[in-house]
Amino acid sequence: MNELWALVYGFIQGISEFLPISSSGHLALLPKLFEFRDPGVVFDLVMHLGTALAVIIYYRKELLKLINEGFQILKYKDLGRGVFFQNFIVSTFFSFVFILLIKDFALSFGRTEVLIGANLIFFGILMYLSDLSVQSNESLVEKKNYKKAAIIGISQSLAIFPGVSRSGITLTSSRFLRINRLEASRFSFLLSLPIILASIVYKIPEIYSGEAIHTSPVIIIIGVLSSFVFGIITIHFFIKLISKMGLWGFTLYRILIGTIVICLA
Questions:
Q1: What digits encode the pLDDT tens for the residues 119-145?
Q2: How many angstroms from the chain centroid is the CA of residue 187?
Q3: Gap between the Cα atoms of 60 and 180, Å rounded
Q4: Which of 9, 19, 184, 206 is deepest in the core (most CB within 10 A)?
Q5: pTM to 2 decimals?
Q6: Structural contact between residues 26 and 202, judged by C-beta atoms closer than 8 angstroms
Q7: 138 in helix, strand or coil?
Q8: Residues 225, 246: Cα–Cα separation, whole Å
Q9: How many CB atoms lie under 10 A from the CB of residue 74?
Q10: What are phi and psi of 237, to 5 degrees?
C-alpha cells in the first residue's frame, strides 16, 4: 500500500464510520476490488483511531458532561444523578459482554464478499423499517432507561460482522425504541469510543511486534489523519442530513452496493 491508498482508506473510514453504511465492509472490499494486499483487520482498527479522535473533538461538551456525571455519582453516591452516564455505562457493558461472546463465531465467517453484501442489504432494510417509527421524546440523556440502553449496547456488538455497520445497527435499534434521530446519532457516535479504544489497547502487543500490520508508520499516520479530517466533516453534515431526509437514502445505497458486491463475488 502506498501513500495515496492510505489517504483513500482514511477518506472511506472517515465517511463510512459515521454514515450507516459499514466502514469495515467498505475497507474489507477495497483490496479485493483493486487487487492489492489486504493490510489486515489491525490496520482497519488503527484507521478507527482517527474517527475516534473526531468524535472526541466534535462531542467534547457531551464527553465532559459524561465525565462530570460520573464524578457526581462517585462523590454523592447517588444514582439519582448522572442519568446520561448510567445509560452510557450500561450500553458499553453489554456491548463488551456480547462482543466477547460472539467474537469467535463472527471471526469464523471471515470477511467474504457474499457475507458483506448480504449484511449490507439485510441490515439496510432493517434500518429503513426502524426509521418508520413515529418521532417521540424518548431520551437516554435526560431519562434513565437501563433496558433500552442494554438493547442498544447489544445491537452494537453485531457490528463485529463486516457489512453490518456499527452506527447503522445502533441507529436501527434506537429508532425501534422510538428515540429521535439526532439523539440516536449522538449516542451512537459516543458509544463507539470505548469499543474502539479498548480494541486498540487489546491489539497493542500485535501492533508493537509488527506481526499483525504490514504497512509503514508514515502510511499509517496518513490514514489516521485522513480519517480524522473526513470524520469531523462527516459528523457535522450527517447530523444535518438525517434531520431533514431520514435514513431511507442510506438504505438504497446499501442495497445497491450489497447487490453489486454479491454479483461480483
A1: 999 999 999 999 886 666 677 877 889
A2: 11
A3: 21
A4: 9
A5: 0.86
A6: no
A7: strand
A8: 29
A9: 11
A10: -85, -30
